[in-house]
Records
---
Amino acid sequence: MPTIIVDDTRCKGCEMCVIACPRKIIVLDKSAMNGKGYHPARLADPSGCTGCGSCALMCPDVAITVIA
Amino acid sequence: MTASEKVLMKGNEALAEAAILAGCRHFFGYPITPQTEVAAYMSKRLPKVGGCYLQAESEVASVNMVLGAGAAGVRVMTSTSSPGVSLMAEGISYIAGCDVPCLIINVQRAGPGLGGIQPAQGDYWQATRGCGHGDFRLIVLAPSTVQEMVDLVSVAFDLGDRYRVPVMILSDGLLGQMMEPVVLPEPQGGLPPKPWAACGHGGARERNVVNSLYIEPPELEEIIARRFDRYAGIEASEQRCESYLTEDADVVLAAYGASARVCRSAVDAARGKGIRAGMVRPITLWPFPVSAFGQCKAAKAFLTVEMSTGQMVEDVRLAVNCGRPVEFFGRTGGIVPSPAEVLARIEDVAGRYA
């Protein structure tokens, strides 16, 4: 099943991937905080991911790896 | 990478590279979000170009290291974010009192206190009103794009050296964290000589003393008066701003930094709706570009937009000498206003005054 891996240390919580995701299943994880103080992005519904890669393409900090 | 080639860079990193290209080889700082990438980039790059990167134990220590290096005549900088500037305030006052040039970067976040880590513009007063004890000024430059973050770094160092004043670049978390294409400048050579610097001379001349302590009141008053003569020169010749569609504008917005980006979109949208809107975007916050506001002959009202509860709005009111209404719109807490919100305010102001 396709999924994404977010490198929490690079994520700055800008939400570009949240906007880019055509399935609208990426959210900021308010229960987690990285070293810089940002809430990192998470796949809220792993079963909905198509592995399209839009989030990874959009991420300005290259923090997202897509497992297709 | 050749000159004039466009590269995609994060604001904080572009700013750091620009400082190296401007001849800065000394950085003293302490990490704080959303500024940390400046320090991280410097720690990676400075040792490779024969420079000195030092992460101090605190902001208080780092700003005093800046004073020491600046007194020795080198191009030196520190960077921090809002709470860090408060910690540096004492040292900045000493630097101003010693007439030592340096570059201080403030990548603003929301305050007061620890506040938040998202972008804000609540440090306008702190930056433009001296930001420490005693009578002094900082030259304050406000970029609104990553390219301008780059371009203003060499301007900042040059102004500092010319007038022997500390210079602040007042950025914010949005500009620091965003990525945009930039063209980096050629490395700056031929830095100006600093005959006043305390940098060793092998007994060849009288010793130079860099100091801010003057026990005799008349002597100190004279020093302050001469310093304010320099400030007057800065106010007369160093005002910078961008005037966007102001010539025929009924409603003139005033905004700097990240909020100016939003305002530009809102002005375009207002023009699309037939409202003659424009914008004055101060690039120097001190000296404030007073003359640009005087040139807005057609303006029936001004609208200042800030990511604060209203700080620069006071300078806009002073600039228009209360001759025309100056309204305010702002968001705080780390929230960036949307173009639609600003457009609604423009329509409101235009409806009442235009």
---
Amino acid sequence: MLKIIVCVKAVPDPKEADRLKIDPVTKSIPRLDIQLVLNPLDCHALEAAFQSRRKYGAQVTALSMGPPAAGNVLRECLALGADEGILLTDPAFAGADTYATAFTLASAIRKLGFVDLVLCGMVSSDGSTEWVGAQIAAFLDLPVVTRVSEILEDQGDVWTIKSDYENGYRIVKLKLPAVLTVTREINQPKALSFSGILKARSKQIIEWNLESLDLPAERVGLKGSPTCVSELSNLESRRAVEMLEGTLEEKVDHLIEILTNARAA
Amino acid sequence: MIDFTFSEEQELFRKAAKEFAETRIAPHVPIMEQTNRGWDEVVKELAEAEMFAVTIPEEYGGLGIGYIGRLIALEEIARISVATAMMYQVFGLGIEVFIKFGSEEQKRKYLPKFATGERLPTVAVTEPGGGSDPKGCQTSYTKEDGSYVLNGRKCFITNSHIADVQVVLANDCENSEAYSTFIVEKGMKGFKATHEEHKVGMRGCNTGEIELREVVVLADNILGGEGKGLKVAMTAIGDVGRGGMVGCSLGVQQACLEAAVKFANERVLYGKPISNLQAIQFKIAEMKIDLEAGRLLGYRAAALQDRGERSANEFAVAKYFTTEAAQKAAKMAVDIHGGYGCMEEFPVTRYLRDSFVLGPSAGTSDIMKVIISRWALT
């Protein structure tokens, strides 16, 4: 039976993104009352784990680092089908950049013992760095493939993976254990179901803190984060309207010209 | 101590129901509106999402989630399509009479199939001669050689043409004071779904008439015992029927508020969004107040129901308040849209039409006042 860890993140609901504002003094984004939800791409990572479980049998553990409120997101993972949830929560973990986050997550994975596969969403909807998956792999000294859009062959411990790039893709063979970060093209996650929610009643969420992980305080959270945010600013995007004049043919020709020039630019 | 918060699990039910309504029901709405059909597709979607299992106990193949869970599901479905929510709520009414009054044999025979949606029931009480006063029931039965022969006509029956099982209220020909409810199955000789209604709103929600001509049923088809029909019909309508209408109304209120807020923020007049105008703000405030109050009334009644207590009076209050509030909200949402509120491409026109079907269903507002005044005066 495979042992699969799916790293998930509680993010501010992307549907409420326009309510997020930058605090000009602290350069942080106050959470306000915006609900934390499961990072959308992590649903695809979970579904990839469930597909492997259906084929070969697996123990799927959802792992998250965050405030106690992130427990709701882990409960949702259990309702979606994860076998157990682990929440890494401690005031010392607060303010972590991707390096400190990956270090903490990797420490928890190491504490779990042997794992076959670590799955992550390619990117989080709030931070959007695409770094954490690769950094976890580095801390665990495991191979990593990012932007996985298809698992072509998954029998045995050598898998064949399709990995996307901006203008193409590559086919990769890799040996498990490994870390994969997945895109939304990899699968269509199943919807949350009422029976899944009821089944989650009997599943457990374990909480680990700094002491449980036996980590030095200076390696986690803000203290363990080498990243320094010097500036954050809002991007204004405004739509420009241009009315095209002339006959239908002239307007179509003009539109094609505009679109062609825009692509060239 | 009173705790007004939903549990973590109930919040997940809401999320699941909301996602279901937005992704699986919403695509059917335009077809339902245009054709006054499409019910087979949405009923299939409801079945696949386990919606019919919500109130059915686990030992009969259900989920046993209860009535707060049902109200959450109804509210979220009605927010997208109150026509779908209406069919769902009346199937729930049909299911409820089996849960509350079915014999063990009847429960084992019917409930597991209802839970999966393989078969679905409705309740047929209203007749051309009367609805809220079931004693005016003209549909009759006679006993012949250990069987029962049913004759009559029922109207305004939600799911009339699509239910596999009808629970029919009928009056004993030999004893005008005795009423019984009978399980009548689709395909029985003499049973027919006849006229289909074309309602002002809730298009795509199946409503129509049924006809019973010399329909012969066995004693096993009596639900709740011979002569107990009024109790069966009124208990189901009082607790579950009115509760269902509360869910439908809350969904319409929420939809109206969302549409009004969106339009008010986007519509710019004299250089500013109209949401800056106090006249608009006050309308939105009233819609929000009514929604908050309606939720408190509705979920309080559902909480009583989940505890196994009588909730008919509390649901009468909630039903009166929320159906009136939904009509008010739809009118205000249309008003906020100005001229656009008359254009069918804006959903508020649908909400206005739908809201007028909420009132009469499961008892008009005046009937609710009769019930509520009796409660207050005794």
---
Amino acid sequence: MIGAAICIFIFYFGLLASLLFSASLKGFWESLLHPSTLFSIRLSLIAATLATLLAVAIGLPSAYALSRFEFRGKRIVDTFLEIPIIMSPIALGASFLVFFNTPLGEAIQRKGIFFVFEFPGIILAQFATIAGLATRLMKTSLDEISPRYEAVARSLGSSSWQAFYRVTLPLSFRGLLASVILSWAKAAGEFGATVTLAGAMPGKTETMPIAIFTALASANIEKAIVLILILVFLGLVALYAVRFTGKIYRYD
Amino acid sequence: MIKIEGLTILLGSFRLKDFSIEIAEGEFHFLLGPTGSGKTLILESIIGLHKPKKGKIWIGEKEIQTLPPERREISYVPQDLALFPHLNVRENILYGIKAKNHSLKTYEEYVGSLIQVMKVGHLLERYPANLSGGEKKRVALLRALAPKPKLLLLDEPLSGLDPSIKFEIQQLLKTLHASFHPTVLCVSHDFEEAYLLGDKMTIFIDGKVEQVGKRDDVFLKPRSQKVAQFLGLKNLYRGKVLSKEDFDQRWILGINGLRFSVPGSACQDQMEAGKEVDLYIRPEEVMILREGKSVKESLKKNIFEGKISDIADRGRHHTILFQDKEEKIFFEISIPNYAFRNLDLSIGKSVKVALRDESLWVMS
């Protein structure tokens, strides 16, 4: 069994090592500092961060409600959180395109924000992919904190909001932060929904994963490798950050 | 004075109707009932975590059932204590005072004396994870009392503790109550807990208040067989009133074909011939008669001959199982160790027992 675990490690490590093997140092810097690469990196970081903030803003209250209250339709809401997980990202993106062709969708685009093939489209696509996941992960972290802490805090004079930010929030902070980081990493790596809704326009909607795809399509292996390595690096940093939060915020 | 009137809770399959209770200021009141009888739900309704269907709650003159928990001035110590793990003992203790924006200065002396009585002065900088079970209990009690609540709610405060810690906490609760006189409502399923700590108790079984009274009243004069059974009382017998003895206001009961003479003062309700009743014989009030010694007149009413069928050493006393010679009834008799030795009892030995009037109680 340990052998199987080692096999998995070798499998993934080999994959990463092949990237390093194929990259040349000179080409690496050249591709990295190329304006289009820098643009993709910046675009990805900003979009993923905004999508994550949005997902937290809506997901955290939802997660709290799902974790603490009983209400009609709770089961259905809970099931729907998994929609982006069972739905292929490209199907999700395509659904958006269909939606923006309905009268309501058109009205939104006309009078509000333009999403299709625009920057807000990236955020919307990424948000759609991670909102369910973020809510589910945050709900799990909140579930771990006994509601009794809040009950006691309230009996001692805290309002429900104070009880949340003085007691439940610090106690679940580790789990919540980990949820946010993982959601962010997932948003940063999102491809299917983004490319379908926002397109792959260089200098406009080309996020890192999309740039990898276009680089490969135009046989620019050097650039593809650079972008892959950066994505892997960001992912590893995120994972490490999750582990690290686990170490500092421990009370038991 | 804390008063709850007509509390009605409907939650899933749980139904509580018209629950009422009164707790005088400074009283240590026990709400006793079997596990799963909805006691915790009652507590949560009093705190304000659960919205009851109906009912009013007064603290003094103030009606509080519509207020949110933070404005009720009711502190709560749950069974699992819920000490805030991210705050040290000092911060835990001061949480309530700070949450209410009270000035720490005005509470300094009071909290200081609480800390002294609870002996937690050396623990203030520690975190809950580094406290023993007994220490946690003390901190939780202190945290609840620090903001001077109008009512302190305790949920099974002594359950799940090692015997030695149990004794320590029990003493502490006594001292605490004696020195600070908080009004306490304590929920428990353990009669022993209530017996050791409570002034007054409400017995709550199957969603109904069965009896309210002073500790000894409840223990010595349970209102119904249900209460007696819940209290774990031994020697409960179902029988019938046969007749009235024309002198002395006594009644004759027939149980398993045996006759018992019971004084009117030991009967809870009006008696009449033919009525079905429950007789409770208090194990500690039954006398085993010494051979050859003359028997007092007052004991002659209920004397039974038989033999000892079992003996159990309970540590502080012995429990004797007595069976009458016609093999119609068993009594459990509880006697102090010295009496046990003096009487030289053994299994199978023939003895005579007398039921003193104090040992009899009739419920209907």
---
Amino acid sequence: MKKILAGAIALALGAGAHGFAQSLEDLNIQIHGYATQGFLYTTDNNILTTHSSDGSPAWTEAVLNIGAQPIPKLRIAVQGRFFVLGNFGNSITLDWAAADYKADDRFGVRFGKVKTPSGLFNDIQDIDPSYIWSLLPQSIYPINSRNSILAHYGGVAYGTLGEGGKLGKLEYRGWGGERQIGSGDGYLLEQTEEGILAPNGIGGATYGAALHWRTPLSGLMVGASDGRDATWSSKITTGNGALAGTESIAPFNEPNYFALYEKNKVMVAAEYGRLPVSVDLQFTGLPPSYERIDYRNWYAMASYKLTSKLTAGAYDSQQVNHQAVLGPARYSKDWTFSGRYDFSQYLYAKAEEHIIDGTGIGYDTDLNPNGLKPNTKLTILKVGVSF
Amino acid sequence: MKKSILSSVFLLAASILAVDAGAQVIVIANASVKASGVSKDDLKDVFTGNATTLKDGSKVVPVLLKDGPANEEFLKAYVGKGDTAYRAGWRSLVFSGQASMPKSLDDDAAAVAFVAHTPGTIGYIDKASPHEGVKVLDVH
């Protein structure tokens, strides 16, 4: 009797374990991740809130992605990140967490905290293993504001229309929701160093659309996107909390126009974007102060795969703030030369040299107390693993 | 003069044979896939995550080989990328929340077994490998 009972329990456990394993397999659970370590050295000025003029290893990222696909049309995934770059980050944050329902190639929708598919590279700008560059062109993809512009809370609808052939294919994305610029974001860095704090960050409604036309010319895509951000406002303080007030940003658009040609060993891309922003600071009992920013940004880049493991590339990235006074702080012109070596599918190294003219991007005053020199050379070495 | 013409013909023949090396890989699919053939454009779109259906409406799921000559040859001939760049492209999709990584199988036998038993799957193997239980798609 005991033997029968033991046999029945063993059979039940075996069946249960098999069923559990089967159900996990049915969920198609995947775990992926990557980690990178960077080293920065500048000839002049300290950049990206690091002590780069002494050489700085203060750039570490680690990402973990867990996804499941319980049915063919539904995927659920979450991605977390540890990020530190100088004084930025040093915390674990939620990159995105979303459910994605893809009815077919023509229509799908994802919602939750989702990547914002604006511009050419916005939704992949934080994915270091996917490109040759250590830093993407900072005129359009500033790393010190990356966490804020990468994703929004809300949804994205997407799909592809057309069947190729003479007309090519048209990919569309439309998004809407709410964006939050964190209190430690690069956008708020200058005013934070001036003693104006926005402890809860700033944010508000955002929506937009993007079109990517995969042209009949194999490998060529041209596209455009435009995002509209509604009035953003936030409470601010200064004088160690002695004065309280409100920071408001008037509604603005963020148009981007871009093209990408990618075929065999060659990649060529270019993008133009504009970011016009009007900021209003109002402290109780004091007259308001206004600041208007009008960034015109562009870059052109190319890379070539020299061997199966070695890729080389270069880009020219420029930004001009048309509302700023004349001088080096009004612009940034960055000639960059890059190389990437893939030791295997999982391990790679990058080396990059930036020749930067102008101080419009990437600098803070705390780490450059004696002022900024107009030109800097930045060398970056980076190693990464991914699985 | 004749010698130079002859050498040119030999060179041309050699280059044609070199291009034809792509034909050493065959594309296989589960019997449930309606299509009997697939265009190179469709194949590229499916294997780069840009499409999940073929022109005739067949819904397909790509299956990869982990490595090896057939894998390199397929990617070079039909996707236009090396293995490292190809997987970097998929990682972009995975880490931006746009797709799941396709299943990667150890060898041709495992790919044939998986495709044979999994509806909608499409993969590739060396032409010389046994492939009973799967249909072979004509690539045009």
